[in-house]
């Protein structure tokens, strides 16, 4: 039986004994930081960079780099888990907590889902409820240094409790939605929600992620 089939049939996902419940099933720990994305690494001028908010909000707004840097700042230390099977423990990110960012907006009562857009032509859908956790950031720093261009400068979303494809780099816009809609990977056979502890990697039954996929990528 293929490993993916075996994992799907297991009632309780197998635990990695060495790390107890901390390392999600089917993941390998890395100390390096793999770089994964679609398209070229974008370049920006902070004088013209902006983050647009639209959809089910009373007032559609645009935020500058300075607008975000003036908001309350939060630092988190969290583990991250990529669907390509790498996990990295104890990552320090700093930025604006999503729930603090919401204070600058009037989102409508019917909002249940959020689409977060990033360059280049990337987007991912996340339930609003998940973005209200107190460790969700619109982050500008990693390990107390500005994000490198490869890792999402100037701002990326950080959603530590879901697979890392939800953590949109080079964030450009946030759309508030009543009805859910699939984002880029969610339309391409990846799971709509993506809980790493439940191994919600794929939306189809025949999905399979080779263990060494991430080792072929760049690191820094
Ligand atoms: N804008 C954008 N954000 C993105 C992606 C992308 O292609 N474009 N890839 C996602 C995926 S699949 C992963 S695993 C993480 C990788 O982040 P990293 O390169 O900092 O490790 O970014 C996510 N955010
Ligand atoms: Mo990924």
UniProtKB/TrEMBL annotation:
Residues 1-26 are annotated as: Disordered. Gene3D superfamilies: Oxidoreductase, molybdopterin-binding domain (3.90.420.10). InterPro entries: OxRdtase_Mopterin-bd_dom, OxRdtase_Mopterin-bd_sf. It holds the Pfam family Oxidored_molyb. Residues 1-12 have a biased composition (Basic residues). CDD domains: arch_bact_SO_family_Moco. Residues 39-185 form the Oxidoreductase molybdopterin-binding domain. This is DMSO/TMAO reductase YedYZ molybdopterin-dependent catalytic subunit. It comes from Saliterribacillus persicus.
